[in-house]
Each structure stands twice: as C-alpha cells, then as structure tokens.
Write a structure and sequence with these properties.
The protein is of the alpha+beta class. Helices cover about 30% and strands about 25% of the residues. It folds into three domains: about 100 residues, no CATH class; about 70 residues, Nuclear Transport Factor 2, Chain: A, CATH 3.10.450; about 300 residues, Neutral Protease, domain 2 (Orthogonal Bundle). Strands 1-2-6-5-4-3 form a six-stranded antiparallel sheet, with helices on one face. It has a four-stranded antiparallel sheet with strand order 7-8-9-10, with helices on one face. Strands 15-17-19-18 form a four-stranded mixed sheet, with helices on one face. Helix 5 packs across helix 6 and helix 6 crosses helix 7. It starts with 9 loop residues before the first strand and ends in a 7-residue tail after the last helix. It binds zinc ion. The site of zinc ion (ZN) has 4 residues, from helix 6 and helix 7.
Length: about 500
C-alpha cells in the first residue's frame, strides 16, 4: 500500500538531477510501526519513482524530529564513506504514521564519481580556508575539518568542509574548499552581524520637546512631531535575517512582526515596526552598557537573546515573565514600547531575574525590583534629558493617564522623593511601586554622588549576593560589599551616610 501513484501525486521536478524534488498530495495508510521504519519502507517502495533506488542503502538516518502533529525523518546521502553536502531525503508522517510528504535532494548514481580524487592535502586546505578570511592572522582557528562531497550543478567535487572561528570581529565561517584544485567553493559567515537604520524616541517625545503641552490634545497624546525622532543604527542583527533577531535581543514573540530585506526600518510611531525598533535599540544598548561595565564573556549576565513581544496585550501594562524569560509590552494608552523608560524599567526586572532568579518574592524585594527599574530608566537617559525631566520617569507614557499628566513634568514616578524607610507601607494591600520609590530615591542619590559607572557597577554587582526574599537592609549591605570587593571601600563612608539618612540598615 506504500507505492505512490506518480499520476495522482503532486511533484516538483528538480532542475539538475531530473528526479522529483518534492512529492506531496498523498497520504499512505495508517500503521503502528516506528515512524523511521515506515519511512524507510516508503522510500524502498518508491525508489524508482524518486530516482533513488540504487542509493537507499546509502541513506543514513540523521535525525528524527517529533513536532506536535507529525514525525520528520531526515536521511543524509553518503558516497564512498563521505556525506554529500545538502543531499538530504526527508519523509514526513502524521501521528498515525501516514506519510504525506517526501523531499529529495539525493544525487543520482550516474552523477557520483568513481573515486574521491583529492589533489590537495588537508594542510593545504586549512591554509587556503584561513587565507580566505580577512584578519585571520593569530586571530582565527579551525574548529572542524572533514572531507565531503560538494555538488555544484551536476558535478560532484570531493571537498573539505572547514569551520573557522575568528575572534575579532567575531565570526564563524563555514568554508568548502575544492579537494581537486583548492578553490573556495563556498563560504558563508554564520555570525555575520547586520545593521538596520531606524527611527526611535530617545527616550520619549516629552523630553525631546521644549514644551510638552502641545503633545496633548484635550488630554489625549497627539502624534509626535518630527523633532521627537532620532535616527539610529540597530546593531548586531543576525546575518541573513529579515527580522529583528540579534545577538542580545529578538522581537520574535511579536505578532505580525516587521520584516525588511533592505535594512531600512524608518517607521514613525503610528507605523508597524516602530515599537519593535524601540525595544530592539534600547535593550541592545542597555546590554552593551552592562558589557562595558565588565559583564561580558564568561561574566555575561544574559546567556542568550532576550525575547520580546512588543505588542503583547491591549492593556496599559507591560511585564517580564520569569518563567519564559521574556518581556511583553502593552498597547493601552500610549504604547508602552514608545517610551524607552518603560522599556528600561521592564528590562530592569529581566536583569535582576537573570542574576538572581525569581527576584521579588517578599514585599521589600518586590519594592526593590520596582525601585531598581525606575533607577535604571532614570539614570540610563539622564544625560539625554533636560535637567527638569531627569528625575521624572516615563513622561510620554504618563500623558495618556489623566492623573499622571497633571504633574509637571508629567511622569509615571519620580526618583527623587524625600522618602525614608519609615514610610514603607507594610500592609497587605501596599503597592510595591509606591514602596519602590524609597529604594529608587536611595539608588538615585548613590548615582548623584558616585557617578554613573561606579553607581551602576556596585548596584548591579550587589544583586549577585541577594535572593528573591531580600530586604532593603540586606540590599544596602550588599552594595557596601560590592564597594569593598571592587573599590577597596573607597565609597563606604558616603554610602553609609546615604543609607542612614534613608533609614535603611543596619549598615555597619
Ligand atoms: Zn515593574
């Protein structure tokens, strides 16, 4: 029952080999055997139709992938003991083991060479591969080399498949060197980083305007003027991608995400892709800042790109999910991702969780989480904002809120309120954002006294010794420890003064 009828199946003929490249439009009968066994039987029964009859014994099972509704069997063609580049045959069955698709890139037997005629040595191939990578001297190494067959149209060359890893700038080349003549047959950088141009707010339209009043109309935010935008370069995007997938962040979770082939994403805030450009740019810059403080290489805080949904909810809310390690931004009111300070605040939660998993499980720890996010947002953009906006966080987001826009300047929260630990609300219904203002004001003072680099370094470093249930007092002592470890107690007296004034301690 496995024999397919070429007349009723749909096929795409291959250009070079004359065999069908893809066969579908059929479904074999259900069965109970292992999907791999069923797949092999199907290939056996249709060897002539697929043009692979004499080759079936040379197909080696490479991988079985189980998805939700199907099994996917991938076979690699080998010849004289070497794999043939790209020569895969795949069989796909549903959960009842009914095959419904075959893809075939096998090289027909008549095209296969009688012997592997290597004219150049492996050493010579290595040299040629390294020479083809610019800046490779003392800066690159070969991490893999193996003999393969390399099909070019109908000619099948013996070749060396060589992986070259270059340190600076970081790249990971996959190079095929012809085994007969030593030519480079193909060369491809797995890690080529691309850039896109984009428009963003930095951090938001309110701080960019001399006067924010014209930005609202009867209490609703208006379309920001051209002066509100800044043209920037989105860096470190993955090579060959058409989406915002980068070294440090990906907008992968965003529904209907923006796609570009030409590297230009100059969307305004009302256009698709703007919010993605905002989160991509600001989070990438924030992580680069962490790297500049020394959190890089084996000390890197984020081990893989943060995944973001720039339009995850219609509510006026954004969050970090510790379970998924992802960020979600809402579109209620002003889109949250249109205000870079909201982005940095949420990034603060991701940063804490990356250092100290499940941070914020007690009321004080939760307040420290909120306060830290506001501190991060305020300090990250301080140098870019006019003085009067410096301690006001998320002014653009606040314009959509009738209560928050009353303030001058409008803002979600401030980081310079004269609060002390005495005012911490310990009642069960207390708001961690309100309580968090005590912590953000404390951190802000540290920033004012010690400057950005030192303040950020000791504050971030302090998290490594905290836990999810920490307290203001322990947080204070952790900052002192960080100063001891990194700066030989240079700022101890100043820091103690700040904590004492805020009623946080004991810090002796
Ligand atoms: Zn928060």
């Amino acid at each position: 029952m496995n024999k397919l009828n070429p007349k009723t199946c749909r096929t795409i003929p291959g250009k070079n080999y004359g065999t069908p490249k893809e066969v579908w439009g059929f479904r074999t009968s259900p069965g109970h055997r292992e999907p791999v066994v069923a797949a092999r039987d199907l290939l056996q029964a249709n060897g002539d139709f697929l043009g692979i009859a004499p080759l079936i014994s040379r197909l080696r099972l490479q991988r079985v992938i189980e998805s939700l509704g199907a099994w996917h069997m991938i076979f690699q063609q080998r010849h004289l003991g070497m794999p043939i580049h790209r020569a895969y045959v795949t069989v796909h069955t549903d959960r009842d083991r009914r095959a419904y698709l075959v893809k075939n890139r096998a090289v027909p037997r008549e095209l296969l060479p009688r012997k592997a005629d290597f004219q150049i040595s492996e050493r010579s191939a290595r040299r040629r591969a390294l020479r083809s990578v610019s800046g490779a001297e003392n800066n690159a190494r070969i991490t893999e080399i193996k003999p393969v067959w390399y099909p070019a149209m109908r000619l099948i060359h013996p070749a060396f498949k060589i992986r070259v890893h270059r340190e600076r700038p970081r790249s990971e080349w996959l190079i095929y060197v012809d085994g007969e003549k030593g030519r480079i047959l193909s060369k491809y950088d797995n890690l080529a980083w691309l850039t896109w141009s984009a428009l963003i707010f930095d951090p938001n339209p309110v701080t960019a305007a001399p006067d924010w009043q014209p930005l609202t109309d009867k209490g609703r935010p208006r379309r920001p003027p051209e002066e509100a935008y800044r043209k920037v370069v989105l860096r470190d995007l993955r090579g060959r991608g058409h989406y915002l997938d980068g070294l440090r962040i990906s907008t992968r979770l965003t529904p209907n995400r923006v796609r570009r082939g030409d590297g230009r994403l100059e969307a305004r805030s009302t256009e698709r892709g703007f919010d993605e450009a905002m989160v991509y740019y600001h989070i990438n810059e924030a992580i680069r800042h962490l790297e500049s403080l020394g959190y890089t290489g084996r000390r890197a805080i984020f081990q893989k790109p943060i995944e973001v949904n720039a339009h995850g909810t219609r509510d006026d809310n954004s969050w970090y999910s510790p379970g998924e390690r992802s960020l979600t931004f809402g579109t209620g009111g002003v889109d949250d991702a249109e205000d870079a300070e909201v982005i940095l605040h949420e990034f603060g939660h991701a940063l804490q969780d990356a250092i100290c998993p499940d941070f914020g499980q007690s009321p004080e720890a939760a307040a420290m989480g909120e306060g830290f996010g506001d501190y991060l947002a305020a300090t990250f953009f301080a140098a870019k904002k006019p003085a009067r906006f410096r301690t006001a966080v998320a002014s653009w987001d606040a314009l959509a809120n009738p209560h928050l826009r009353q303030a001058d300047p409008p803002c979600l929260r401030r980081v310079d309120e004269p609060l002390t630990y005495e005012s911490f609300d310990h009642s069960p219904r207390a708001d961690e954002h309100e309580n968090g203002k005590i912590w953000s004001a404390t951190l802000w003072e540290i920033w004012e006294v010690l400057g950005w680099k030192v303040a950020d370094t000791i504050i971030i470093e302090s998290h490594f010794q905290l836990d999810g249930f920490t307290t203001f007092a322990r947080g204070g002592r952790a900052i002192l420890d960080a100063d001891r470890n990194l700066y030989n107690r240079r700022h101890l007296a100043l820091l103690r003064q700040i904590f004492r004034r805020r009623g946080i301690g004991p810090v002796e």
